[in-house]
Task: inverse folding
C-alpha cells in the first residue's frame, strides 16, 4: 500500500473516532502516530501539537498536514488532510439532509452520554503525556518502574504555573501566552 | 432571486471567503467560529435563520470528526447544497494546509538547534497547562452523574497505565453509555411511582 493511501486511511480512521475536537484528538493521534505506526517520537509529537497550537486553523488539520508532509511531502500532506476531512464531511452532509434523524436522537444521546466522560478522561491523560515531555524531567511512569528515576523539571513547572496565571486572568490572548512561554523556555531551560 | 445561477455562485463564493477567513484567523478553531457565522449568514445575509444555527449546533455535537469541517459542511449545505458544503470545507482546510507546509519545511532544520529546543520545551509546558484548564472546564459540564465520573476515571487510568488504543476506549464507552441509558429507561418504566 502506498504511503499516501496509508496516510489517508489512517487519518480517516482517527477522524471517525474523534468526539469533541481539539484536545480530545491528542490521545488518538498519539496512539496512531507514535505508538502504532512510529511516524514520530513522543518529543516530536509534542512539538507537533505545540506547533499546531501556535498556528491558525484547527489543531487536527494542522497535525494531519504536518505528519503527512513529513512522511510523503505535499502529496502526503494532502492525503492526510483529505483523510481527516472525509468522514467529517460525509457525516455532516448526511446530518444536514436528515436533520430530524440526527437531532435529539435518543440512541445517539445515550451513546454520547458514555463517550463524553470517557473523552474527558482521555484529555486528562493528554495532560500527563505533555507533562512527561515538559514539566517532569522523566516520564511519570518511572515512579512505578523499579530502578527508573523520576523528577520535576523546575523551569518547566514555573512556565506551567505562569501559563495558568495568565489564562486565569482572562485578559491575555493565548498566542501571547505561548510566546511568553517560548521566551521563558529559551531563557530558563538548560 | 432574479438570476438564480448568479445567486447560487455568489453564495458559494461567499461561503468560501467567510470560512477561509475564519480558518486563517481563528486559533484553535471549533465552536469559536460560531459568532462569526451567525453574523455573516443570519444577521447580515439572512441565508439562515436562528433556528438553523441552533439545529446546526445541536447536530454538530453528536458528530465525530473535525468540528470546523463538520460545521462548514453543515452550514455550507444549508446555504448552497453539496457545492456549498464542499466550498466551505475546502476553505476551512486550505489556510492550515498552506501555513503548516511552509512552517514544516522551515522548522525541520530549526528544531535541531538547541535554542529552538528550549523554546519548544517552554511552549510544551504552557500547552500542558492549557489542556489541564480545558479539562477542568469540561469536567464541570460533563461530570454531572456518578456514571460520568466513573467512565472519566476509567478512561484516564486506562489511557495512562495500559497499552490500549484510545479508539477502544471510545468504542467501549459508547457501548457503556448505550447500555446504561437503556437500563435506566427500563427502571423508570418498571417503577412508575418514581419521579421521571
Result:
Amino acid at each position: 500500500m502506498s504511503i499516501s493511501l496509508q496516510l489517508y486511511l489512517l487519518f480517516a480512521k482517527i477522524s471517525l473516532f474523534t468526539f469533541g475536537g481539539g484536545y480530545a484528538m491528542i490521545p488518538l493521534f498519539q496512539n496512531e502516530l507514535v505508538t502504532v505506526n512510529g511516524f514520530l517520537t513522543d518529543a516530536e509529537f509534542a512539538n507537533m501539537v505545540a506547533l499546531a497550537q501556535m498556528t491558525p486553523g484547527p489543531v487536527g488539520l494542522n497535525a494531519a498536514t504536518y505528519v503527512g508532509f513529513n512522511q510523503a511531502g505535499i502529496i502526503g500532506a494532502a492525503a492526510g488532510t483529505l483523510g481527516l476531512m472525509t468522514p467529517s464531511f460525509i457525516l455532516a452532509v448526511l446530518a444536514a439532509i436528515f436533520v430530524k434523524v440526527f437531532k435529539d436522537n435518543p440512541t445517539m444521546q445515550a451513546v454520547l452520554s458514555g463517550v463524553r466522560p470517557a473523552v474527558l478522561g482521555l484529555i486528562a491523560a493528554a495532560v500527563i503525556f505533555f507533562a512527561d515531555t515538559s514539566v517532569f524531567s522523566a516520564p511519570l511512569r518511572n515512579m512505578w518502574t523499579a530502578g527508573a528515576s523520576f523528577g520535576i523539571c523546575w523551569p518547566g513547572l514555573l512556565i506551567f504555573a505562569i501559563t495558568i496565571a495568565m489564562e486565569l486572568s482572562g485578559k491575555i490572548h493565548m498566542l501571547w501566552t505561548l510566546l511568553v512561554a517560548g521566551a521563558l523556555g529559551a531563557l530558563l531551560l538548560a | 432571486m432574479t438570476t438564480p445561477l448568479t445567486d447560487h455562485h455568489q453564495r458559494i463564493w461567499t461561503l468560501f471567503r467567510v470560512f477561509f477567513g475564519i480558518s486563517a484567523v481563528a486559533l484553535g478553531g471549533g465552536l469559536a467560529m460560531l459568532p462569526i457565522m451567525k453574523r455573516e449568514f443570519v444577521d447580515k445575509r439572512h441565508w439562515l435563520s436562528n433556528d438553523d444555527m441552533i439545529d446546526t449546533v445541536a447536530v454538530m455535537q453528536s458528530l465525530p470528526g473535525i468540528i470546523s469541517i463538520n460545521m462548514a459542511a453543515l452550514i455550507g449545505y444549508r446555504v448552497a447544497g453539496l457545492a456549498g458544503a464542499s466550498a466551505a470545507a475546502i476553505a476551512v482546510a486550505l489556510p492550515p494546509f498552506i501555513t503548516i507546509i511552509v512552517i514544516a519545511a522551515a522548522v525541520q532544520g530549526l528544531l535541531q538547534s538547541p535554542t529552538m529546543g528550549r523554546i519548544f520545551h517552554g511552549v510544551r509546558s504552557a500547552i500542558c497547562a492549557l489542556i489541564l484548564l480545558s479539562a477542568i472546564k469540561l469536567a464541570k459540564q460533563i461530570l454531572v452523574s456518578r456514571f460520568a465520573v466513573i467512565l472519566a476515571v476509567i478512561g484516564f487510568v486506562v489511557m495512562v497505565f495500559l497499552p490500549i488504543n484510545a479508539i477502544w476506549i471510545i468504542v467501549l464507552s459508547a457501548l457503556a453509555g448505550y447500555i446504561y441509558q437503556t437500563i435506566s429507561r427500563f427502571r423508570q418504566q418498571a417503577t412508575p411511582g418514581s419521579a421521571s
